[in-house]
Specification:
149 residues; globular; 5-stranded antiparallel beta sheet; disordered N terminus; 3 helices; alpha+beta
Length: 149
């Protein structure tokens, strides 16, 4: 018999989230920032949802917004001078518009740092979100076939 668990969970940092959903926690983060970083995080969040309507929001690693579809698409970290979208498998994605401008030396991840006043190439960014989700779903399908084969 499984033991019942409480609705309140501890995060990686030991903080109790009071049972709030990841979407509610992201809403709270955006409001708490109260400046251009909150606005930027809200904008990219809206673009992710437009590009991938089936995206799932998560809250991981001591309070980092994460967007997933068959795996992590990207994270949305906020710093004093930047909002950083880190794509989990960014090195495997085509970036014809040259959006990636950070974490370019790694073998797996790639990131986009947005600074105050930066313009967003919405079409290119949405294409990147779609490509990341497609890569995840393709990788998951391949892994599933290998297990059943």
């Amino acid at each position: 018999m499984k033991k019942a668990t409480a609705a309140t969970k501890k995060s990686d940092s030991g903080e109790v989230n009071g049972g709030a959903s990841p979407s509610q926690l992201i809403d709270t983060r955006i409001k708490e920032l109260g400046d251009w970083r909150g606005e930027m995080l809200a904008r990219v969040r809206a673009l992710i949802k437009q590009a991938e309507p089936e995206v799932v929001e998560a809250w991981k690693w001591r309070g980092v917004p994460v967007w997933e579809r068959s795996g992590i698409i990207c994270t949305g970290e906020t710093y004093k001078s930047a909002v950083k979208l880190t794509f989990a498998k960014g090195a495997s994605l085509q970036d014809p518009s040259g959006l990636f401008n950070s974490s370019l030396d790694g073998n797996t991840r790639r990131a986009i740092d947005f600074h105050e006043g930066d313009e967003i190439d919405e079409q290119a960014l949405k294409a990147l979100f779609r490509a990341a989700a497609a890569l995840n779903t393709t990788a998951k399908a391949v892994a599933s076939r290998k297990k059943s084969g």
